[in-house]
Write a structure and sequence with these properties.
The complex is a heterodimer of chains A (about 130) and B (about 100). Chain A has about 130 residues and is mostly helical. Chain A has one domain. In chain A, helix 2 packs antiparallel against helix 3. Chain A is flat. Chain A starts with a helix and ends in an 11-residue tail after the last helix. The C terminus of chain A is likely disordered. Chain B has one domain. Chain B is built from 4 helices and no strands. In chain B, helix 3 packs antiparallel against helix 4. Classes of the chains: A mainly alpha (about 130), B mainly alpha (about 100). At the A-B interface, helix 4 and helix 5 of A face helix 1, helix 3 and helix 4 of B.
Chain lengths: ~130, ~100
């Protein structure tokens, strides 16, 4: 099923020949990646220095998410931001903080990633005002 | 009471997402201030309610309200796509994220 999705992505790209919105998706994925670190920071920060880093990460991560939502639909952006952040935190918990590995988690992560890939496929950029193609 | 506060925190979060959309329509200081205030107060109320509501359930409900609310407001007021595939994929991301918060 997953490979079917990847075939779909490749095909769509070839047909459209347009990568302009990929930049926004990469930005969104990076925002979610940073989210993992500030969520960890909120729990484990213990002095001025660690809190400063955490707060900077909160600001940068949310700034990237909000600017992405100016180009892509905000409902989609927020779902992907929260979803991927949750995935990353589950991974970090299992790898570094001794949470138990469960197949239920792997299944849910798979469902979530299929949802994100699907959203990337069906999402169109907001058109600039007055610039109709 | 903690549950009421939790739901209110979710609604403030939804309002914050609406302000993110509003920003793309009209970029002004008022919207940015409302955006920061709504997310700030939402997180404050969330952390307050988590003193009583179990963490996993609290986060799951807060996230759920935000994602559903954000998607609905986008479709109702900001002309976002009502494509059924988009709704299915958002529902997949949402249910998996809520599920992960509940099992972790």
């Amino acid at each position: 099923m997953l490979s079917g999705f990847f075939v779909l992505i490749l095909r769509k790209k070839k047909r459209w020949g347009d990568h302009s919105m990929d930049k926004n998706w990469v930005k969104l994925f990076f925002a979610a990646f940073l989210e993992v670190f500030w969520v960890i920071g909120l729990t484990y920060s213990y002095n001025l220095w660690t809190w400063t880093v955490t707060i900077i990460l909160v600001i940068v991560s949310n700034y990237l998410m909000i600017t992405t939502a100016q180009v892509l639909p905000a409902g989609t952006v927020y779902a992907v931001f929260v979803g991927l952040g949750t995935c990353g935190i589950v991974f970090a918990d299992i790898l570094f903080f001794g949470e138990s590995f469960e197949w239920a988690k792997v299944f849910l992560v798979a469902v979530l990633l299929i949802g994100v890939i699907g959203l990337k496929l069906v999402t169109e950029e907001k058109r600039e005002k007055g610039v109709e193609a | 009471m903690a549950w009421v506060i939790l739901i209110f925190a979710g609604l403030l979060e939804t309002f914050g997402i609406a302000m993110i959309s509003q920003l793309s329509v009209k970029r002004n200081a008022q919207t940015i201030v409302l955006l920061i205030l709504s997310f700030g107060s939402s997180l404050t109320l969330l952390s307050y309610s988590l003193r009583i509501v179990p963490m996993g359930i609290g986060y799951a409900i807060w996230t759920g309200i935000g994602v559903v609310g954000g998607a609905l407001i986008g479709m109702l007021f900001f002309d976002e796509s009502k494509d059924w595939r988009r709704m299915v994929f958002i529902a997949m991301v949402l249910s998996a994220a809520v599920g992960l918060k509940l099992v972790s």
